[in-house]
Write a structure and sequence with these properties.
six-stranded antiparallel β-barrel
């Protein structure tokens, strides 16, 4: 089974260096100098690591097969993959071990199927194909933390969720929204105008 180690991002500099979006907890081993990695799509590789360095918390790698910026840019979006068996670490799973698992609630109610493990900037999340009572299916991201996903039973073919109200699409009616008191001025000036920047326009940055 192929395990994605990293996805190649944009080129860095003029000498073929690329930034990586890591998908492994052991980049020192997986990306060691001299390592040859298969790729997805296969036609883009294999790629041999010739240089590795950290720059502003980003992993930058140079491959023997990409000697300049043009060649590096052509690799953008390519995935680096290795053959991997099931993980033998406690509380650690490869994405391919989780895909297709049945998703249940703590009371045994079947929610749907686990589609993928997503590596988000803040934390990992499970992408769940949630089947709603009306028969439709929606995809829901569930934070992959123990408080919400207390059980991962690969051998039993299931994961168990204990979601807070409103996390799942089926529980949308359970969301509690705090509304301002009637006549209140929260988020507005006394004349009813919402706050803006000094130039008089809304600030588009978050």
């Amino acid at each position: 089974m192929e395990l994605v180690v990293a996805r190649i991002g944009r080129a860095h500099g003029l000498r073929g260096e690329v930034a990586l979006d890591l998908r492994t907890d052991d980049p020192e081993t997986r990306l060691a100098v001299g390592t040859t990695l298969a790729t997805q799509p296969p036609a883009a590789g294999p790629l041999t690591v010739t240089r590795v360095r950290l720059h502003q918390d980003r992993w930058l790698v140079t491959f023997a097969e990409a000697a300049d910026r043009t060649a590096a840019e052509a690799l953008r979006g390519v995935e680096l993959v290795v053959e991997a068996d099931a993980s033998d670490e406690e509380d650690a799973w490869y994405p391919h071990e989780l895909q297709g698992l049945r998703v249940e609630l703590t009371d045994g109610t079947v929610v749907g199927e686990l589609v993928a493990l997503e590596h988000l900037p803040a934390q990992d999340a499970l992408l769940v194909a949630e089947k709603l009572p009306d028969g439709t299916t929606v995809r829901t991201l569930v934070p992959f933390v123990r408080a919400i996903v207390p059980v991962v039973d690969v051998a039993g073919g299931r994961v168990v969720l204990d979601p807070p109200g409103g996390l799942l699409a089926r529980d949308a009616d359970a969301v509690v929204v705090d509304l301002p008191e009637p006549g209140g001025t929260d988020g507005a000036d006394a004349d009813g105008d919402t706050d803006t920047d000094d130039a008089g326009g809304a600030d588009g940055e978050r």
